[in-house]
Amino acid sequence: MLLVSSANNSWCQGTTDSCHSFLQKADKMPDFNAAIISIDAKIVDLTWPGGLFEYEEFRNIYVHPEMYKAEALAALNSQALTEQQKIIVALSMQNLELSNFLVFSREVLSLLEKGTISQAVFDWAVFPSYDWNTKWVDNRTAVEVQQILAEISNSKSVSEEKKKYIQEEIITGMAEKQVLYLREIGQIK
């Protein structure tokens, strides 16, 4: 069951299919950065990032990430936002469809290599915890996924810890076993 709100406060309750046209017609927020700053002011800290879903602005971005991908990348590239605000931006993009997530991940890698974002922001944007997304694990054998994982592994800007995670957890399928277990016990979808 899906419960979704648009920026104009209309609601759709039902399956993803029955809400599809509703999701397509959502009103876009006029000022993405202002919404992120507002969310940040309300949440105070990200001790529990799942708390972001308490805020309508965050839910609207998360449910419609394709509408905000360009604004999200611009926000990550901006010096006007704090690191925590950039992490909020990163988490708001975790619901991107795979092809858009791969494009987003490449752009975020580029921002890391330019020194525009920190390793922490990169990690939240590209490798969030499994309760946010399991795209790398679920699609690890796809050629496009393998290509970008290789690009990330070859980047001098990416931490050795992330490179090790890619090689020892994702590529080997070890992470897939962890994800399957977490799904079995109901910890993630």
Short description:
This protein is mainly alpha-helical and 189 residues long. The chain has helices at 16-24, 32-43, 56-63, 65-77, 83-92, 98-114, 119-126, 135-138, 143-154, 160-170, 174-184; strands at residues 2-5, 11-14. It has one domain (31-184).
What's the arrangement of secondary structure elements?
Blueprint: E1 2-5, E2 11-14, H1 16-24, H2 32-43, H3 56-63, H4 65-77, H5 83-92, H6 98-114, H7 119-126, H8 135-138, H9 143-154, H10 160-170, H11 174-184
Antiparallel strand pairs: 1-2
Describe the protein in words.
With 189 residues, the protein is mainly alpha-helical. The chain has one domain. The chain has eleven helices and two strands; from the N terminus they run ββααααααααααα. The protein has helices spanning 16-24, 32-43, 56-63, 65-77, 83-92, 98-114, 119-126, 135-138, 143-154, 160-170, 174-184; strands at residues 2-5, 11-14. It has a two-stranded antiparallel ribbon with strand order 1-2. A hairpin with a 5-residue loop joins strand 1 and strand 2 (11-14). Residues 1-25 have low confidence and may be disordered.
